[in-house]
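=== Per-residue structure ===
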Amino acid sequence: MISTSKGGRPKKKPVERPFYEKQTDKETSSDIINQARVSLRSVVTERPFTPQTNERRLFPRGGSASGKTTERPPSAFSLDSAHFVGSDSRPNSGSSRPPSGSGRPPSGSARLLPLNHVPKISPSQAEILEVSPPKLPKPPGERQLSAKTKSRLKLLNSEVPILPQPLERRNSSPTTPTKSPAGSRRVHSGPKERTKNFYEERGEGEGAEQATRVLSAEGRINQSRSQRSNSCSSARSESGYSSDRTTRSGSGSRKEKESPKESLFWNTNIHPIVEQLVPQSKDVAEIDRMCELCDQLFIALLDANMLGKTAVRRSQTLKTVYKLIDLGSATLSLKAARIVLAFEVTGSNLITLCKLIFKISKNKDNDALFQENKILELMVKLIATTDHQKASEALVYCIGALKFLTGNNTVLKDLADYGCTEALARLLININTAIMDGSHTGQGVPNLLLQVTGTLRNLADKSATRATFISCQIIAELCKVIDAFPTDGDLMFNISRIFSKLTLNQECCTILTNHPTTFSSFLMLMNKHLTNIELIVRLCFIMGNLTARNDDCRYCLFSTENAMETLLSVFRTYFELDIVNQRSEEKVKGSPKKSTEMTKGQKYEDLFIKLIRVIANLSINQDIGPLIASNPNCVDLLLQILVDELMVTLLDSGNREIVYTACGVLINLMTDSVRRPILKSEGGIRKLIDVSHDFGRHDWQLAGMVCMILCNYSEKITCCAECFGEEETVDLIELLEDYLDEETPQEAPDGTDWDADTIEVMKSYWRTEFYPVATQLLNRIENHNSDLVPLVAPS
């Protein structure tokens, strides 16, 4: 006689086998656990939510997230041409400098004004000056005094004053010349003046008479030339140009002769444009004219290779271009900044230039201007070639501007093509090298790193740049920064955002896993910034990505010192905060206001999801899973959240991935016989049936996981009513019989529009992931389902 089940389906009589032989129609608990581990899939959770803001700031509002006050440059300041100095190659007059953004040029870079003092000249000196005019730089093409004439001057035995050169005269007050001691030589005397004079051998009287005749004749001839030379030298002195083409730097000075070809090109092509770069008004037409002239000047200088530090008449051009920013036009200011940047200014001028570029970049409407003016390429070159220890403040503003510009996807692509990622990687390596050498000082390095990591955070969004991140070893360098500045919350937050994006790539995960301090650094950051939920949630997301597919990574994280203690500490801290938050929300009447930002409750839920995912990934490992299941603190916390408030939220939210994470944890937890009664007492059986009912037809893999949990839970079943509950047993039998019908996976669920290929894929999942374990569970329930209550063993 063939018996039938309650659903009317014929029930086959099981084949009896010897007790020592493994039953082929039944699976043992170990078989079920092994199948669970094999079928577990990694859960891809959403990246942590970061709200977009329309405000562009150099540093986060309110200072460091670590709660410590830091000295950081301001995001707002005023700029005009007075902030630029006439020549950036001169040494500063002083060393002190007011704070940045004060609105005044730094005192250390300002020129000393000439004294309003006219020296008194004695009659004897006036007579000498009348006979012998002061030596001035000769105009182009004019011959100088011969060597014989210079020698004859010594025979006069007179107090001939030695006046400074035009460039020297700008920074020195005119004073009455003093008589040099007899026999002494001037500091700036040439080699010819140091040789023995011919006239000294012939006799003083004859030599003096001949020298007087020569000077009288040449004095009359050169008098008019001296007047012209005075006016010419004065003009050149004001513009910073001299015929010697002297350039000074901090390490010394260097002279470069202007070639006739350069002089001709300047006078013919450059000088006419520079002369016109004097705005007559601030109206639109005049600004447009200045913009056109700036383009012409830049192209002319670029074509003639007359840009850079040693360019011809560089100071004269810069002084003219500086004044263009006073017109207040962003377009004109950026075109002027392009010329200044191409001249490779340094010192305080470089700081002011980078502040100007930063100020223009704060407005999103100006993003297109950077693409039109070729300034992006010059900015990348500046980052790649500038010493961060000498120009850290300038780099802060320059890279801060790039951080804003990389928020624009169009500009981001251009910067990636110009090698921005490589330049930042080189700078990052140099900074870490300086840190290891102990040569970095002050707050300048963390401020600079904040801008570097902020820009890299935007570049990491572009999948094409990830190969550069790998080849330039940026991941390893960022790990070094974590070890160097672990207390800087803002900096750690930027790095966590970079890793959140990079760890979506498997190759990046491998590199980060292979770094020796990765997990210890992450756990250390969790302990130091326990209350910084924005950082904690990203660290959990990163560790979840690392442990999703790599079993060695699970060993590395679990074996790190105090790993589970740290994860559970985070778990416990935010679980308590969530309870307090729920109570406070219950007291507030009315609906919450709509906001683009996540509420506290949503942030806590997001953290729990990512933290449980880490624990679930660790539990997949066959050695780590039982250890986690035997940890009473871990199990208690998970059960309080999974069969408590969060479990209800997870099941009612309709998020399949969240439920999948919880089921992955429960599969391993139910292997512990001590923990099984808690599942029923907290209503877990009913919740699992509901999960299978809600998601089963859409996800046969998830429905199979529910069956695995119930199989593990019912390993020592004697009566279905006692194990699952009477009502739960009836519902479970009906659900399993319906799902095991072969026609069920061949139909698309209600509300879905699956094509034939999708239905075929889902059918294969039903056949491999759901059918075997569901059949095993149904047979177990039917074998132990009876209306008779088992007798209690006598005491």
